[in-house]
Amino acid sequence: MADNNNTARWSWFGPAKKSVKPLWVLLAISVVVAFETFVEQTRAYPTYMTLGIIAVAAWLVYEALSHKALVGLLGVIVVIPWLGQLLGTNWLGSSPVVFFLSHSLFAVYVAAAAYTYMGRGELAND
């Protein structure tokens, strides 16, 4: 019998599954953010991208808490450059290296979530 979510232990990737089907919405978001990695910034960073990335990170951290997946909590760290954009620091525009690393790390984070704790599949202990 499977543990209910309140008594399950924390793990790196959430509850073990027999086979994982990734959440395709997250993979699409990951690709969009990865494409943004290679866009040359000639003007201010778009507010809609900032808000979208923060919303996705908040959703993934919330789901990580409910699935007790430690890897999902990295979203709190990965989203810092975009939180800085809202607060008026121009971290994303300050250096091409920061811009590139921020977007690439966020894309990897979202893809990892799609294949681990957010993935769909039958639990291994069912």
Overview of this protein structure:
- By secondary structure, the protein is mostly helical.
- The chain has a domain at 24-39 and 47-115.
- Helix content is 56%, strand content 0%.
- Helix 1 (24-37) packs antiparallel against helix 6 and helix 2 (47-67) packs across helix 4.
- The mean pLDDT is 83.
Q: What integer value in Å does the Rg equal?
A: 16 Å
Encode the helix/strand succession as letters. HHHHHH
Discrete helix count = 6
Overall average residue pLDDT: 83
The parts where pLDDT drops under 50 for at least 5 residues are none
Concise account of the structure shown:
This protein has helices at about 25-35, 45-65, 75-80, 80-85, 90-95, 95-115.
Name the features.
single chain; 126 residues; mainly alpha; 56% helix
Layout of helices and strands:
Layout: H1 24-37, H2 47-67, H3 75-78, H4 80-86, H5 91-94, H6 96-115
